[in-house]
Amino acid sequence: MRYGGGNRSRLLLIILIVSSLFLITLDLRGVQVLDGLRSGSQTVLSPFQKAGNTVASPFKNFFSDITHLGRTRNQLEQLRAENFNLRTKLINRKNADAQLKQFKSMLDLAGTADYKILSAKVISQGSTQSFSQTLTIDAGSNSGIKRNMTVICDSGLAGVVKEVYPNSALILLASDPSFRIGVRIAGTQQIGILSGQGSRKAVLQLIDNQTTLQVGDVLLARGSQQNRPFVPGVPVGSVVSVDNSAGAIAQSASVKFYTNFSALGVVAVVVGAPKTDPRDALVPVKPRPRPVPTITILVTPSPSPTATK
Amino acid sequence: MITRQLTFSALIFLFMYTLQESLINQVRLPGGGFSIFIIFALVWSALSTPEVGAVAGFGAGFLVDLSPSSSGPVGQWTLIMILTCFGIAFLGFGDDKSRGNPITIVFLVVAGVFLSEIAFLISGALLGVNLGSLSQIAIILIGMSMWTLLITPFTLPIFSRFHAFTFDTGSRI
């Protein structure tokens, strides 16, 4: 027999729907209680996330590693020869080395621009069910982190601090669809607005239509008033294609972020901005083409053969 | 009896929520991955009466809304989950052929995940939430549905045991 419903069931459903609409209204009106609930849930979850990060660290990048299998085949063959304990140790060590490498590059970046940074470990990646791009770090207001601070990684801009809790903070990644940042093109100093698209690609909209964009142009953060949310000079990405459609009001381009958002292990929050704008000091150095050795063969002609009879 | 059921249900839901937020979210899977918590809530509803389904949807949706990485306003997921869980429970209730059939439940859960994501997109667009490029949305929608199709058959026996234990129904899948 099919369920035919009933007055009690209908009433319950209506009450629940009205309650959820009530919650939406309260949240959209900015009632503090609901923010407190989210903050409380993060405070409770933070120790579990740290524990989960420790448990998941050996296999969290499993799928991205698979895509690079061809490049690491030799390394895998070496690992196969070792016993299980050594392999586990190696994986853990590899993870730590990668984080150390990221950390070193991050310090170089911050040191060049004179940023005062606070490094933090990523303890949770945000869920994608809400189509948002976030991550949680293991440092919060107790460490001096505040909302709207710039977050950088070894290769450039990672995002911005969205929410702060006592021992953790939620970072809105630059790839999030709601992310917007004012950028300038290194060299020409033309300005534009970069919007996240949910992936490593972003869309740049130039303010001035007279400017000519070129593939490979480097984008740097323009900086905000009081240096929040963005400090100036942080490398953001480079132009990969330019939209030259005739009818466009403003010139736009597709940009690839320098940051690989799926491989972030450690990040740094810029807690102190530089006294002077670093300008183009952080523009990544283009890889130098390796000189191809020119082989010169000198041929000395032998004396002309003499005809012999 | 009702106190026991409510307590057990709440504890199991909180456990699944913590598992999702602390462990499953750590792993970056291609295509957006899956939400074990939403799968669990939908399986729970598929095995329950429509009233229990609606209440389970309310609780589950509210917990998803409390997740710091949730982008919409509090209440958005609550509303979506109430309707989805009630719908799934309503479709399955009273028809033992479909309720006792794991394939039907897997199909209902996959459809539930897909429809709830579509509902989130539509309501998000109405509420002014930025959702990203069309290609990225399509990847996540298809990816999440595929992952749900892959994961649900493995988790269904465990979830149905939890449900049977809580409601003392004795019927397991």
Automatic annotation (TrEMBL), chain A:
<dbReference type="InterPro" id="IPR055342">
    <property type="entry name" value="MreC_beta-barrel_core"/>
</dbReference>
<keyword id="KW-0133">Cell shape</keyword>
<dbReference type="InterPro" id="IPR042177">
    <property type="entry name" value="Cell/Rod_1"/>
</dbReference>
<dbReference type="GO" id="GO:0008360">
    <property type="term" value="P:regulation of cell shape"/>
</dbReference>
<protein>
    <recommendedName>
        <fullName>Cell shape-determining protein MreC</fullName>
    </recommendedName>
</protein>
<comment type="similarity">
    <text>Belongs to the MreC family.</text>
</comment>
<dbReference type="InterPro" id="IPR007221">
    <property type="entry name" value="MreC"/>
</dbReference>
<dbReference type="Pfam" id="PF04085">
    <property type="entry name" value="MreC"/>
</dbReference>
<feature type="domain" description="Rod shape-determining protein MreC beta-barrel core">
    <location>
        <begin position="127"/>
        <end position="270"/>
    </location>
</feature>
<dbReference type="InterPro" id="IPR042175">
    <property type="entry name" value="Cell/Rod_MreC_2"/>
</dbReference>
<dbReference type="GO" id="GO:0005886">
    <property type="term" value="C:plasma membrane"/>
</dbReference>
From TrEMBL, chain B:
<feature type="transmembrane region" description="Helical">
    <location>
        <begin position="105"/>
        <end position="131"/>
    </location>
</feature>
<keyword id="KW-1133">Transmembrane helix</keyword>
<feature type="transmembrane region" description="Helical">
    <location>
        <begin position="74"/>
        <end position="93"/>
    </location>
</feature>
<keyword id="KW-0472">Membrane</keyword>
<keyword id="KW-0812">Transmembrane</keyword>
<protein>
    <submittedName>
        <fullName>Unannotated protein</fullName>
    </submittedName>
</protein>
<feature type="transmembrane region" description="Helical">
    <location>
        <begin position="36"/>
        <end position="62"/>
    </location>
</feature>
<feature type="transmembrane region" description="Helical">
    <location>
        <begin position="137"/>
        <end position="159"/>
    </location>
</feature>
